[in-house]
Every structure is written in structure tokens, then in C-alpha cells.
Amino acid sequence: MDTSKRFEKGNGGCPSIQCEANKEVLCSSCAEGVVTAAHRVSNRDIDPCLFGKGGTCCKNCNMGPCQIIEGVDSMIGICGADAATVAARNFGRIVAGGAAAHMDHGRGVALAFLETAKGETPYEIKDTIKLRQTALRYGIDPTDKDTTDLAIELGEKVVSEFGQQEGTLQFMKRAPKARQELWDKLGIWPRGIDREVVELMHRTHMGVDQEPESLLFQAARCALADGWGASMIATELSDIMFGTPVPIRSKVNIGVLKEDEVNITVHGHEPVLAEALGMVAREPEMIAEAKKVGAKGINLAGVCCTGNEILMRRGYPIAGSFVQQEVVLATGAVEAMVVDVQCIMQGVSPVSKHYHTELITTSDRAKITGATHIQFEEHRALDVAREIIRRAIKKYPERGKHMIPVHQMDVVAGFSHETINYILGGRFRASYKPLNDNIINGRIRGVAGIVGCDNYRVMDEIHVELAKELIANNVLVLVTGCAATGIGRAGLLSPEAASMAGDGLREVLEAVGCPPVLHMGSCVDNSRILIAATEMVLTGGLGDDLSDLPAAGCAPQWMSEKAVSIGQYFVSSGVYTVFGPSFPTTNCKSVTDYCFKEMDKIYGGCWDLAQTANEFANKMIDRIDMARKNLGLDKKKERVLFDMAMRRELGSPGGGSLHDVGCHGPSAS
């Protein structure tokens, strides 16, 4: 892909990029001399190495790197490894890297949960109902147990799953029975969370597993340990500690920064840090200190997935997605950027040096040269948060030339599985039945997930155009991660955007007051989509397994290894998943065919590749329509005119219902 066509030079060498807020900041005089990822991509004279991009460069030993060409005998590895082995190894290592990031995140949340249960942190158990439900899933009887004892027992069991060597992961038993039976038949039940990453890394070491299918089975097992293990643990325990998200209004885009307040951005993925900062930022004492230096208050804004965490639970605005992290700093209006782990560009350090901004790292896993390091520890979370905020307050008087763009957009976020259940049926009739009924009767065509990163090599806002096309075709969209921020910037996360949906979907959305795109959280919260999809199966009428659902997923602008792990656990769960604009095995036809075709036969879900929004939409809608056809939902039901005798029969026990003959009322109401 020709980079120059995407990033034409503007005045002063400013890269021309699609987001208006980014353009205004980077082309302003206060950003002069600042180099961001946008500049680095536009100035790069060479495209990525095609061997590496397509998965056929092997550097797993010191005889290489070996560049492999499939079908050319002279272009295999020094050790004899062919393209299929190398591509499968590389794919497995990507999955292992992405899964490890989520697993370490999940372990951190589990340990913080256990410390909280023991009263060693300032956090608390906010959702006691979910605590008891989760305890039951782990085989713990909550009867006659107080909250503290129950939380400690649950915390100990959850933490043990990370290191266990045999057995199964409890949350995998939430999947439909048919899916569990398939996993059992295939022999890919994860035995322990950490074990599967270690084994996958061992198998991909030089001279170990050299059968592509075997490598890809272990990649599937490792990914399942992520999605149905660590990621689900992180989401569920975060909900119990910090509160299960409910719909909440806020704003996104760089314009959420304030002229007259201390601007602190929190960037990364750890909810424990964001929660502590959120608790302290509204303390009267902190606000009084800000006023002493001339500010009206403290403005905490999120970046990347930490932004999604504090948006979902506290309503704090999101200043930017992954691709905006350096641009947010280039406004010159940020007193401190506080980071924890994952997706933090090293470029934020030199950008911050152009201004008064202090870059603060908080995890010993993720230090950055040139940053101030303040180690975050859960047992003194509020003290650390106060120290960080006080440092930011001291920086406010040093703010110099700056430019805050006006661009911001209203959003509604907070659509957890529990919230969707409640919206559809209320407190006493909470159920996915109205959703299923409206898929069955055709008002809603199906459900699509748009997840994952944004990417400076894909600046065509594919997320936005794809979402618009899906909802116009009556497909309900679920979104997580930086994709959610991009879609939010375009105004699709508000109920008013229902006007852009097709007639059937719009009718349902207006009845329940929902946006056409439901913000479900950060990238680790893709487990919420697994739970929602499972609930659709259990509710009935849409098949017996996740692979039967009229549903599809995609990551159109994937950037990180985590996205590939997420994609693989969806595929292994039976969901058709489209990535773009590239896929990490495309230089090897046999492995790519296995991922795109054979996995469909094995799991009932597979990978696919697309590049444009239209291509994504067509492939996903075709898959949804195929599922509808397999379920018999493509046939129009014959209308029946009822006489009085037939109406009396409907009122008798066992007399059937209007639903049975295709006369459906507005179920969503």
C-alpha cells in the first residue's frame, strides 16, 4: 500500500490525516518541531518487509533470519523449515504475545481483587450480586457467607487458575454445551492460563513442533485461555470491585481537554490505576489545591483502553485513541500523562519534552526512558494517585503556548451484558428474548462485533464507514477498544444515531432507547461479547452453538498481537472473524487456507481478510445471511387471518401463540 497517498504533506510538513482534531493540532504552530507517528509513517520511504508481513521470515535461531518462499526448494530455512511451519510458528508467537498481555493484566486484577477482599486496598466490593453469581460458577456456595469471606474464597480460586497445571478453567463452562463438547472432542481445553503460553512458546522454539496443524491447535488453546480465562476474569472481577457498567453519557475526542483546568490523561489498560485516579481527582482537597495555582479544577481524561475503563464506570471523557496519544500531548495543554501498560508508544516521551508535560510511568513492567517513574501499588493506591495529581497541579502554571481543538462528540457507553439484559426486559423480566425475537422476525438482521486497534498505516476510518454500512443493513453493532473511540468520534455511540439505521433496527432501537452501536468496553472486555453471544444461544431460537448465530466479528485496523489472540479465541468459539488490511500468514497459502477454510470445518468459525469498509460489510453480511438461511429465517412466514375459534384456541393451555405462526408484535417494547 502506497503510504504517500495516505499522508500527503501539508503546510510546514504537517501530515494530512483524516481526523479533523488531529489535523488542527499537528498543523498548529504549537506543534512545530514535534514528530509523531503520523510524521514517521509519512516520511518512511520503504514499505514493511513483505516476508515479515506475510509470516515467512524466521528469526527463531541465530542461523537466520531466513526468508522463505513457499514452493521454492532453495528458499526454505537453513534447518529445513518450510513456509507452512514458519508461518504457523510466527502466527503462534503472535497469539502467545497477545494472550500473555491479557493474562498478565488478568492476574493483576485477580491479585488486586484478593487484596481488596482482605481489606488491604482502598477499593471495595461494589457488585455483591455479581460476586455471588461468580462464586457459584466457581463451585462456591454463597449461602450464609458474608461478602468478605466469599470474596476471599473466590479470589483464591481465581488466582490459582493462572498457575494450575491440570484441570479446566471455570468460565469456559459458561459456553453453550455444544461448544464445550466440541472443545472436548478436539482436545483444546486450556489446562491452566499461564501453562498454555509457555507451551506455545516452547512449541515454536527452533526444532520443536514442526507440524502446522499441531502448532495452530495450540494457538487455539492458548487463545481460549485468554478469552474464556484471563480476559473474562479481568472483566468480571473489575465489575465486582468497581461496579458493573450501566449506560452513561460522556464525550470523546481531543476537545475534552480544558483551557482552565489541570489536564491529566491516563493511558494504558489497567483499571486499578484509572479507578484510583478517578477517586482522587474529585476530592475537595485536590480541587482546592488546583484552584490555588489558578485552575478551576482537575480534568481527568482517558487515552486508549484505560479511557474506556473510566468512561464505562465513571463517565470521564476520552481524549484520544491509540493513534491520538502523541497528538493529545502536542496540544501543549496536558500537565501530566500517566501510563501503565500496553499500547504506549515510546514516542510519547520525546513529544512530552517539547512542553511542560510530565510523562509518568507507574508499572515496573513498562518503563520509558525520559519519564518519571512512580510505582503504583494497590495497597497505597490513593496515596500514589494523590502524588501524581499534585505533580500535575504544579505543572499547570508552566503551561505555555497551546491549542485545544473544539472537536468533541457526545457518546453513551456502558453496555455490559447485564445492562443489555436489563434494558431488554427490566428488573423482573431481564432477558435476551426480545433481541432474539427481533432477529427471528427479521427486524434485526444479525449482530456484528467491530473490535481492536486503530493503526497509523490504516487512516481511512474503516471502523466508521463499516459501522454505518452495517447498521444501515439492520445489523446491530457491538464495539470495544480503540475502535469504539473512533466510532464515538463519528457520533455513532449516541441514541440519536439510530436515525442512520435500517427501518427494522431503527424501530427496535427507538423502542429501547439504545444507540445503533453499543460500546462494551476495552479490548479485554471482548469477553462481554462472548457472554452476550452465549446468552443469545441459551435464550433459544437461534441454534445450539455460537457458530449457529447470525453474527460476525472483525478487526479492520488491527495493530497489536492482542488483536490476533482475540480473533483466534472468537474463531475457536465458532465466530466468523475478518481482519484487515493484512493477515500474518498470507505469504503461505497452505496455512492461510487452513485459517480461512479448514478452521471453519473444525470450529464452525474461521478467519477472513478484507481491506475496504465495503468489502468488510459484504463479507460479514453474507455470513450473517448464511446463518439466517441455515436457521430457516430467510423464509417469509405466511400470514394467517385468525377467526374467533382460532383466537379462543390461542388462549387455551398448550394452544400455541402468535409467535408460532409469525405474527410478531414489537417485542423490543
In a nutshell, what does this entry contain?
The chain has 669 residues and is of the alpha/beta class. It has 26 helices and 16 strands.
3D structure, described in words:
The protein is α/β, with parallel strands linked by helices and 669 residues long. The protein has four domains: 3-50, no CATH class; 66-242, Up-down Bundle (Substrate Binding Domain Of Dnak, Chain:A, Domain 2); 254-398, Rossmann fold (3-Layer(aba) Sandwich), CATH 3.40.50; 411-630, Rossmann fold, CATH 3.40.50. The protein is built from 26 helices and 16 strands. It has a six-stranded parallel beta sheet with strand order 6-5-4-7-8-9. It has a six-stranded parallel beta sheet with strand order 13-12-11-14-15-16, sandwiched between helices. Strand 15 (577-579), helix 24 (589-603) and strand 16 (607-609) form a beta-alpha-beta unit. The longest helix has 35 residues, at 83-117. It is globular.
Number of helices: 26
Helix content: 40-55%
Unreliable segments of 5+ consecutive residues: 1-12, 652-669
- Tell me the overall shape: globular
Structural class by secondary-structure content: alpha/beta
Strand segment count: 16
Quick one: biggest sheet? Answer: 6 strands, parallel
Q: β content, as a range? A: 5-15%
The average pLDDT score comes to 91
**Cα-atom Rg, whole angstroms?**
25 Å
- What strand order characterises the main sheet? 6-5-4-7-8-9
